[in-house]
Amino acid sequence: MSDSAYLSLEQLKLAYGKTVAVDRLDLAIKQGELIALLGPSGCGKTTTMRAIAGLLAPVSGHIHLDSRDITRVAANKRSVGLVFQSYALFPHLAVFENVAFGLRLKGMRGKELEDRVQSGLKTVGLSSFASRKPGELSGGQQQRVALARSMVMEPKVLLLDEPLSNLDARLRLEMRAELQRVQKETGVTMIFVTHDQAEALALADRIVVMLNGTIEQIGAPEEIYNRPNSAFVADFVGFENVFRVRAGELDTETGRFALGGAIPREAQGLAWRPSMVELGGGPFEGSVRGMSFAGGTRQYLLDTPLGPIKVEASAHLPTHALGAAVRFDLPVSIAAPLQRFG
Amino acid sequence: MFQNRAEALTLALPAATFAALVFVLPVIVLLSGGLHVEGRWTLEAYQRFFADPLNRLVIWRTLELGALVTAAAAVIGYASALAIVDLPAAGKSRMIGLVVLPLMISPVARTYAWLVILGRAGIVNKALMLIGLTDEPVRVLFTQTAVFIGLLQLFLPLMVLSLVSALENMPNDVIPAARVLGANWLQIFVKVVLPLTREGLVTGGTLVFAGSVTAYITPAILGGSKVLTLVTLLYQRVTIANDLVSASVIAFILIVMSFSANLLLNRIATGRSLK
Amino acid sequence: MTMRQPAIVVLGLLVAFLVGPFVVIVAASLSAGDTLAFPPQGFSLRWVAKVFAEQSFRSSFALSMFLAVFATLAALVLGIPASYAMSRYSMPFAEAVRTVVSSPIIVPGIIVGLALLRYLVAPFGINVVVALFLAHTALVLPYCVRVVSASLDNLRSDVEEAAILLGSSRLGAFFRVVLPNIRNGVLAAFILGFVTSFDQVPVSLFLSGPGVQTLPIDMLGYMERTYDPSVAALSSLLAFLSIGIMFVAERFIGFSRYV
């Protein structure tokens, strides 16, 4: 692992009973980074997060935090915070006592405790809610209490499990900004788990895409978005036309197709977003099976010799009717080359 | 879910050991008494028990009572539960309170009331004589009918509660939907309500049946020695004849009945949680 | 909303059938006559007074109270950790443990009483009160486990994990977070266990000895000997006690949700 790593996972293997959830995972995270663990459900992202928190003991491998091997350190002695997807507030305690819970266990009392809790609540904008019970708060408020409860402990790493998934669209944007602000103000190393690529792209410094218990790709949002390295990642970030490449040609179920342009030698596959497909001319022809209007664009589903192709074209261009034959091109120059396929 | 198995066993073992020693072991020894007679393993005790027509009559009567009480509870239970779920919220919870209440009151007290009601000088007989249906008091006490009434009153609440919860879990608006599609009330009940509340019916039915066949107080007070059921027969065999072998056979039959009822219940419970 | 006529009739009959008998015994117990009758002959409190004067009732009541309180407490002490283990851990033999712990609810009480008398009390010379205590604890245990387990299952386990991540020990998390949140469930389990033990007849039938009887057994015996309304008076008193307990329990913890 690199020297600058603050939190590192080495050859981590995690299992529930006999079911292996994560296998030989390596990951290095720098201090102050905001990392997204992105993947579909069952990919091992939550399991990995629970292992970092100490709620799940690894089968093998190591976890280092701040130059210390914490693999066998108990969860209550790790200085790792976790904001649960369900918030996991203590229902019998008022907001103030929820936030004070960990501080009291540290032995903090009196004015110091009062000040710390109040400043924690102020950070998340809930100063006036200190005496409410969790059941009297909205989902967004509960989440902010959970965030404050973890943050007042000044954890070395703050983990967040699907932090935005239980909120409605408007609150989600608000909370996104809130998380970024808290992270910027405190400089805490933050790892959040999500299945939503838009959320990961919007928030994270770096994204770790996971599939079947292993890491598919690690990179900055732009990198993941523009240069996915595998068919899975490409599909996950919206490249809806993904093809295998063999011997310089597209290899589809219906046959092989040559493209005008040189395919990079190391590419195992090529992927195009619907907006990258050029409609109205080119070497291929398809017929329109479906069309939908989406404001500034029209989305087409074409039946083609290559299989179904999804296209997004500007709404200013002439409309192609259902059943009409259209020519189109898959320009190699702008396609995303995939280093791995399948 | 925590993973530490040793910790889990430490927490669970005291209760498990206690139940095993104080309960499971003695019961197993009791059961083996009917299979292990005079130093060898044999089914003779069972053959002898079933050969006696009186014993067969008692088994039959016990099952018959259980079935009749269950059937009656189902009919009354549906009528009541359908009426209860239609009540406005406050009335509903008050009504459910009234149904739960008897469950909390001593079965001795509950059964005792029927002595007053069904006795020779009880209200039923007074009423019958008053309207001239009979000159002599009719004997209701110490008949199967008395036991039936007592058991029904004892266990009906279980059926009602079970059906109320089944009806409340029914998807909203299926009854109006069926009504709009032209079904009459009978069709709605048979084709919509019954299939959708089957689990609740079976749950309630199992509780009522198991409770009825294993009840002691009601058949003892209202049936006496004239209307023996398996449980009162067992008590009689032990106290009068000190016949532990027969007692063991009866115990086995009762456990089989109760166990199969509970097996059915568990299957419903797990079936539901899998959904 | 107006109720349909048939519904009113059905519910009226239901209430009459379920609650009517109490009205009858309460009335019968206030009779001035010497034998059990309804309608009562005159009004007097002499039978109620007799219940309190009857030495046998007083001692059997004391025994039943003692058993109900301590057997239920013992069952909770055994049952809460077991419920916690079954609800929160992936435990080996979980099914076996659950079956053993809940078996006293499945096996008819009279068999339990007989088995205990013959194979525990007689051979080991166990004191009758101790035997009753053990039997009632075993009997109440499944109810406690059922109600406490249901409360535990309703409390998400991530609440405990949150407490642990905030620095609490496993045991600390249980007392600081779990117990306060299942408090009503534990209270409901106590009431259910208390009532179950107090009203228990079949289990105590064989175990009660001369001079050592639980109240319901004493009542059964009294009924066989005498046909005066004192058992009616006692039944009424017990019914009012139960109603009182139920009322308070419903008011403060929403008892019927737990049954």
List keywords for this structure.
heterotrimer; A: 342 residues; alpha+beta; Rossmann fold; OB fold (Dihydrolipoamide Acetyltransferase, E2P); 6-stranded mixed sheet; 19 strands; B: 275 residues; mainly alpha; MetI-like fold; two-stranded antiparallel ribbon; 2 strands
Give an account of the 3D structure.
The complex is a heterotrimer of chains A (342), B (275) and C (259). Chain A has 8 helices and 19 strands. By secondary structure, chain A is of the alpha+beta class. Chain A folds into 2 domains: 5-232, 3-Layer(aba) Sandwich (Rossmann fold); 239-338, Nucleic acid-binding proteins (OB fold (Dihydrolipoamide Acetyltransferase, E2P)), CATH 2.40.50. In chain A, the strands form 4 sheets. Chain A has a 6-stranded mixed β-sheet, with helices on both faces. In chain A, strands 13-12-11-14-19 form a 5-stranded antiparallel β-sheet. In chain A, strand 15 and strand 16 (297-304) form a beta hairpin. Chain B has 275 residues and is mostly helical. Chain B has helices at residues 5-32, 44-51, 53-85, 89-100, 107-118, 123-130, 144-168, 174-180, 185-196, 198-213, 217-223, 230-241, 244-274, and strands at 36-37, 40-41. In chain B, strands 1-2 form a two-stranded antiparallel sheet. Chain B is globular. Chain C has 259 residues and is an all-alpha fold. The mean pLDDT of chain C is 88. Chain C is globular and about 70 Å long. Chain C has one domain: MetI-like (MetI-like fold, Orthogonal Bundle), CATH 1.10.3720. Chain C contains 12 helices and no strands. Chains in contact: A-C, B-C. Chains B and C meet through helix 1, helix 3, helix 4, helix 5 and helix 7 of B and helix 1, helix 3, helix 4, helix 5 and helix 6 of C.
